[in-house]
């Protein structure tokens, strides 16, 4: 008896053994291609492209009519921080910043908001997006509160009405309540000084 016959065992034909099934790699090929294209699109949108070129339907149009309650228990200088409505945007150039405690880029841009709050002739208002009150209080308590008013957008509906893609986003509203500029994403030291501040000054001057 040959070694081949011995290994096959009694009564077995080695040629009749079922070969191990291999996973059909070609079936996955369309999924791999789709994932690669989706990843490339996302990269171009968030990193390779300029998010400031994303069109906004609200530019040069009145700010949405909205009313948001204050963040419960939030104090500034031992006084409750009031909520915000569209009426609060009238009479002065306003910067409206959409933020959340869970948003890492919001934390990164926060020192620039502290600086922005010192600019004369404007008011800095906040919309707290889908946040828990205790987390918002902790966030502002540790980093400082640059806002004069903050509205709690618990459901995120107001942010949708403002056309927000994601937090953070920052709007400049003129004294008549018209949205004149929108900055998507976190402010950086460079974009703050070379892009945002020039736009703000132009709007303050009636441009």
Spatial order of strands in the largest sheet? 1-10-9-6-7-8
Distance between the termini: 99 Å
Unreliable runs? 2-8, 36-48
- Structural class, judged by helices and strands? alpha+beta
Largest sheet: 6 strands, mixed
CATH fold-type name of the largest domain: Glutaredoxin
Query: Percentage of helical residues?
Result: 25-40%
Q: Into how many domains do the coordinates divide?
A: 2
Overall strand count: 10
Number of distinct helices? 6
- Which CATH top level class of the largest domain fits? Alpha Beta
Q: What is the name of the CATH architecture of the largest domain?
A: 3-Layer(aba) Sandwich
Q: Could you tell me the mean pLDDT?
A: 85
Q: Beta fraction of the residues?
A: 15-25%
Which outline best applies?
A: globular
The CATH H-level superfamily of the largest domain is: Glutaredoxin
Q: Using only CA atoms, what is the Rg?
A: 28 Å
Order of helices and strands: HHEEEEEEHEHEHEEH
């Amino acid at each position: 008896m040959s070694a081949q016959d011995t290994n096959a065992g009694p009564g077995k034909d080695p040629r009749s053994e079922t070969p191990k099934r291999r996973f059909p790699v070609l079936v996955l090929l369309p999924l791999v291609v789709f994932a690669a294209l989706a990843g490339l699109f996302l990269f171009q949108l968030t990193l390779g492209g300029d998010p400031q070129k994303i069109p906004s339907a609200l530019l040069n149009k009145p700010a949405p009519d909205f009313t948001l309650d204050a963040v419960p228990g939030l104090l500034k200088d031992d006084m409750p921080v009031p909520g915000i409505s569209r009426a609060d945007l009238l009479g002065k150039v306003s910067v409206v910043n959409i933020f959340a405690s869970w948003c890492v880029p919001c934390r990164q841009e926060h020192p620039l908001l502290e600086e922005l709050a010192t600019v004369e002739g404007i008011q800095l208002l906040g919309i707290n997006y889908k946040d828990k009150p205790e987390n918002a209080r902790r966030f502002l308590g540790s980093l400082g509160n640059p806002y004069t008013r903050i509205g709690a957008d618990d459901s995120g509906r107001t942010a949708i009405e403002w056309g927000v893609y994601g937090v953070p986003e920052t709007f400049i509203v003129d004294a008549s309540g018209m949205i004149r500029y929108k900055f998507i994403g976190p402010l950086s030291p460079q974009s703050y000084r070379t892009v945002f501040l020039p736009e703000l000054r132009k709007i303050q001057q009636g441009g």
